[in-house]
């Protein structure tokens, strides 16, 4: 055969032409390839030219391309990496997304043949396939339509089938695939859909036929990426410097309680958060407070207006109590002025609104909010949210195919290596939470046990131990699916360890030296705040709880009650009193502690005192998955709202009295409780969640420091 | 099958100080990273290892920023090192007009291209199955899933890829070869026997002198490094 003349080319493109059988085509291509080494590049260049065609291929072109690719598949052993470089680079640039199925198949066949023929091309082929994980930019948008989704399925099914085909021919190929896939992961600053698609492919690899070899690296790589996104969501400027001034409520009821986007609650939430951050509240300067309170009045007026409007819109009870909540928060810092103002407000609830637009600026320097991180944080939060949702779906599919146990082991190892020691990881840990929720008996228990062992074993560094116990406490408190018996057994172990520690350390309170001990005590108290009720309900567990030697620990020289977080301590003591723990001769052993002063923080720079990892997730999509398994503090509190709470001397309050709470009424009743408690009621127990809610501020700040007119496109008033 | 050898090696495993709590696990992990990689010092791909002894008490601590400590080990190793003209056996995974793809020992991929398949074999498609059938012996066929014996042309150490050939007469489907071994000429068979016996003795020798051979190769490596340095200077 010689040079393909013009006439021959036309025949070449007709598939039915009997003159050119497959064998002849292959021979032709082979000759063309070998001719290059002799210097004759004509036919070869022509071949390469066929491969370059991309735009608007007519059927003839398609047939030509397909034939070329098929012929090349039959001659892979003649392809030399040096002489035929332009051919290889032309093939490398071809993306499956641009072509129809016939060409896709031919291209895949070529790639697989190349990979199997020569060790040099294995990495090349794998990289080429990995490049096809995401479509080219111009096709990204079309993915949202159905035709795009169809195309995506066609391409990805072929790509993954190609991986399997290569693995059959070259058994060591999957080993080489893992590092390639991980290296090519899109960075966190890439577009959301691109990352999502790539991660989707990684998860598909993990559950695919070569998942045994490749899967071990996929999940940890994804978790690493999640952490990277997580830490980019800044909580700058809002972290409390010390344990005072913890005023964040659990706003999850306000925001998520009803799905129809209650915009007003959001705005309320925002304003309350902002108000609580006012610096003068921390420094307690009297004149400052007055000025602030004046402005607070303005806010309250606005809030009432909003509440009125909201009532009109949705027919619910007005939220006047919201204003009270704000003011009552202020009271704890400066009682005299606050109380007088508050009494005024309680009387007069028909106030007019005149809110100052610059209000928030007085709270904190605006510059701090316009930090780039927080502005960008919103898109990163969305990416993180979608990725976590994707991981949840993958975990669900693992569970239905019965693989969850092995996948969980990998996840747990990854957790121990990255999430546990990541400083204040915010949402990534919910991946583990959800996996436990899907399989409480196996994974749920395993997680708790691993954390407990990490805390109890003294070979681990102190930070790891403190972090582990914080995770343990938050997990056991928040996981609805964890049995009370498990909680009791773990409590027992913790108590025993703490007691042992006390007995072997006869020294006074020292924050740094005994930080592991203090974190253990705080974990104990935190867990009991949430779980006391369920433990007391079961008689056997109640006996176990009453027999636990907690009193000597709490009364020891090391004085954990003074060191641990005051909110936790106070709530714990109150519940303990109501449950009649620590009763020595008719009086509560810790009566004086109920009015303990604010403690000094412990932990120094590491700040593990305010670390409750499984506080409500702020990412919307992920939260909807977590919600059925997640225990809300307000729900628990409401269940026990009627006892111990209101009666200061309370000892006759019955623990069994459950208030039947309707979801929608939860908020209102919560408010009612707090108001009825009187003005000197101690800090609202919704503060069991300590973590600041920056998300609202992100939204808020994007409105350029105007009072939020629209956080969600809902019933928010434009009246400002 | 040729190409497999058992050898004894004395190695030193250098471990990070953080691993000093559980040395045996760390050593196992280090050794596992050797598996399925070609080691020049050992002259072969490590397929399996068995620790004979490790001397915990005499680990030497290296001086440096990170004080790694070296634990001396004595290992039995199963090595795979195919050399040209060796005969290997593997399972056929793919047949095409152009090539036969084989997997050896479950991990090493081998390819026999058309030009290395002797004229006797012809590619056919029978009953929708791809087959290489022998022209001279009707029953001698090679299909997907059959075990075949082939000779090694070359070995790519990085990707553990073998280039094989079916030119020699005593290569082909093992099933048929075993059955019809008398058809192969007497002399060639005897020659092959002699070869294989010789190889057995060398294998044994290797096992005993494995220590020396590994040292030798280490010395060779050092020598070549020296030579390189001399050349450069």
Automatic annotation (TrEMBL), chain A:
InterPro entries, sorted: RNA_pol_I_trans_ini_fac_RRN3
UniProt cross-references to Pfam families, sorted A to Z: RRN3 (PF05327)
Native source species: Arachis hypogaea (Peanut)
GO molecular function, one term: RNA polymerase I general transcription initiation factor activity
Entry protein name: RNA polymerase I-specific transcription initiation factor
One GO-annotated biological process of the protein: transcription initiation at RNA polymerase I promoter
Family: Belongs to the RRN3 family.
Superkingdom to which the source organism belongs: Eukaryota
PANTHER family hit by this protein: RNA POLYMERASE I-SPECIFIC TRANSCRIPTION INITIATION FACTOR RRN3-RELATED, TRANSCRIPTION INITIATION FACTOR IA RRN3
GO cellular component term, pick one: nucleus
From TrEMBL, chain B:
Organism domain of life: Eukaryota
Keywords: DNA-directed RNA polymerase, Nucleus, Transcription
A single GO BP: transcription elongation by RNA polymerase I
Function field: DNA-dependent RNA polymerase which catalyzes the transcription of DNA into RNA using the four ribonucleoside triphosphates as substrates.
Protein name: DNA-directed RNA polymerase subunit
GO cellular component, one term: RNA polymerase I complex
Main location: nucleus
Listed InterPro entries: RNA_pol_Rpb7-like_N_sf (IPR036898), Rpb7-like (IPR045113)
Location relative to the cell: Nucleus
Organism (species): Arachis hypogaea (Peanut)
PANTHER family documented for this protein: DNA-DIRECTED RNA POLYMERASE I SUBUNIT RPA43, DNA-DIRECTED RNA POLYMERASE II, III
């Amino acid at each position: 055969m010689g040079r393909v003349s013009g006439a021959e080319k036309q025949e070449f493109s007709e598939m039915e032409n009997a003159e050119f059988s497959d064998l002849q085509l292959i021979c032709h291509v082979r000759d063309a390839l070998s001719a290059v080494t002799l210097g004759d590049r004509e036919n070869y260049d022509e071949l390469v030219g066929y491969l370059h065609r991309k735009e608007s291929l007519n059927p003839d072109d398609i047939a030509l391309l397909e034939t070329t690719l098929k012929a090349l598949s039959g001659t892979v052993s003649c392809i030399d990496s040096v002489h035929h470089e332009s051919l290889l680079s032309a093939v490398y640039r071809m993306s499956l997304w641009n072509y129809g199925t016939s060409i896709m198949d031919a291209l895949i066949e070529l790639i697989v043949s190349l990979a199997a023929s020569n060790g040099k091309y294995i990495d090349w082929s794998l990289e080429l396939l990995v490049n096809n994980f995401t479509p080219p930019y111009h096709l990204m948008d079309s993915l949202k339509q159905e035709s795009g989704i169809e195309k995506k399925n066609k391409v990805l099914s072929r790509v993954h089938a190609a991986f399997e085909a290569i693995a059959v021919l070259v058994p060591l190929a999957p080993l080489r695939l893992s590092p390639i896939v991980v290296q090519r992961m899109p960075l966190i600053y890439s577009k959301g859909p691109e990352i999502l698609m790539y991660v989707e492919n990684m998860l598909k690899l993990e559950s695919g036929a070569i998942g045994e070899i490749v899967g071990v690296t996929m999940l940890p790589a994804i978790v690493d990426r999640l952490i990277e996104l997580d830490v980019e969501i800044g909580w700058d400027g809002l972290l409390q410097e010390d344990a005072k001034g913890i005023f964040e409520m659990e706003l999850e009821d306000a925001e998520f309680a009803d799905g129809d986007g209650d915009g007003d609650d959001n705005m309320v939430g925002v304003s309350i958060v902002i108000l609580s951050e006012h610096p003068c509240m921390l420094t307690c300067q009297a004149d400052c407070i007055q000025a602030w309170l004046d402005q607070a009045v303005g806010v309250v007026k606005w809030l009432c207006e909003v509440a009125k409007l909201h009532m009109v819109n949705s027919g619910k009870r007005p939220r006047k109590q919201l204003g009270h909540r704000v003011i009552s928060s202020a009271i704890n810092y400066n009682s005299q002025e606050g109380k007088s103002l508050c009494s005024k407000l309680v009387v007069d609830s028909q106030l007019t609104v005149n809110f100052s637009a610059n209000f928030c600026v007085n709270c904190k320097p605006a510059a701090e909010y316009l930090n780039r991180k927080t502005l960008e944080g919103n898109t990163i939060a969305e990416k993180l949210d979608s990725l976590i949702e994707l991981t949840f779906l993958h975990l669900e599919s693992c569970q239905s195919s019965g693989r969850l146990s092995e996948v969980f082991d990998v996840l747990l190892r990854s957790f121990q290596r990255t999430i546990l020691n990541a400083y204040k990881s915010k949402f990534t840990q919910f991946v583990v939470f959800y996996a436990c929720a899907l399989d409480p008996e196996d994974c749920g228990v395993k997680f708790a046990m691993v954390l407990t062992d990490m805390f109890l074993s003294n070979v681990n560094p102190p930070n790891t131990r403190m972090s582990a116990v914080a995770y343990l406490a938050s997990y056991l408190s928040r996981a609805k699916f964890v049995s009370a018996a498990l909680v009791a057994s773990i409590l027992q172990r913790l108590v025993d360890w703490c007691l042992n520690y006390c007995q072997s350390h006869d020294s006074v309170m020292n924050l740094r030296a005994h930080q592991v001990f203090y974190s253990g005590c705080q974990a104990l108290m935190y867990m009991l705040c949430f779980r006391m009720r369920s433990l007391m309900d079961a008689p056997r567990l109640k006996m176990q709880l009453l027999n636990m030697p907690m009193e000597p620990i709490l009364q020891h020289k090391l004085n954990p009650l003074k060191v641990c977080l005051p909110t936790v301590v106070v709530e714990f003591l109150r519940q303990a009193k109501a449950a009649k723990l620590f009763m020595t001769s008719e009086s509560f052993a810790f009566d004086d502690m109920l009015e303990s002063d604010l403690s000094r923080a412990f932990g120094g720079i590491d700040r593990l005192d305010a670390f409750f990892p499984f506080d409500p997730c702020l990412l919307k999509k992920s939260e909807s998955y977590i919600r059925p398994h997640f225990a809300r503090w307000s729900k628990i509190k409401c269940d026990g709202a009627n006892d111990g709470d209101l009666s200061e001397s309370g000892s006759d309050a019955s623990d069994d009295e459950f208030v039947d709470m309707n979801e929608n009424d939860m908020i209102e009743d919560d408010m009612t409780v707090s108001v009825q408690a009187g003005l000197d009621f101690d800090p609202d127990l919704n503060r069991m969640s300590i973590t600041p809610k920056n998300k609202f501020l992100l939204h808020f700040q994007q409105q350029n420091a105007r009072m939020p007119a629209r956080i969600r496109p809902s019933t928010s008033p434009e009246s400002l | 099958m040729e190409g497999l050898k058992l050898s004894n090696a004395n190695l030193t495993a250098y471990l990070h100080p953080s691993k000093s709590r559980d040395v045996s696990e760390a050593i196992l992990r280090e050794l596992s990273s050797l598996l399925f990689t070609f080691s020049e010092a050992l002259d072969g791909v490590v397929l399996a290892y068995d620790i004979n002894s490790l001397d915990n008490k005499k680990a030497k601590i290296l001086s440096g920023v990170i004080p790694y400590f070296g634990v001396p080990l004595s290992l039995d190793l199963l090595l795979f090192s195919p050399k040209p003209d060796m005969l290997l056996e593997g399972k056929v995974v793919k047949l095409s007009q152009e090539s036969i793809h084989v997997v050896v020992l479950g991990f090493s991929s081998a390819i026999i291209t058309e030009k290395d398949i002797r004229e006797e074999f012809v590619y056919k498609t029978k009953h929708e199955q791809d087959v290489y059938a022998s022209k001279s012996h009707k029953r001698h066929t090679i299909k997907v899933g059959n075990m075949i014996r082939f000779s090694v042309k070359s070995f790519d150490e990085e990707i553990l890829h073998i280039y094989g050939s079916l030119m020699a007469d005593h290569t082909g489907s093992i099933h048929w070869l075993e059955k019809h071994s008398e058809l192969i000429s007497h002399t060639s068979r005897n020659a092959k026997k002699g070869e294989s016996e010789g190889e057995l003795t060398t294998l044994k020798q290797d096992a005993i002198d494995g220590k020396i051979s590994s040292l030798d190769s280490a010395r060779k490596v050092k020598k070549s490094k020296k030579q390189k340095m001399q050349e450069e200077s």
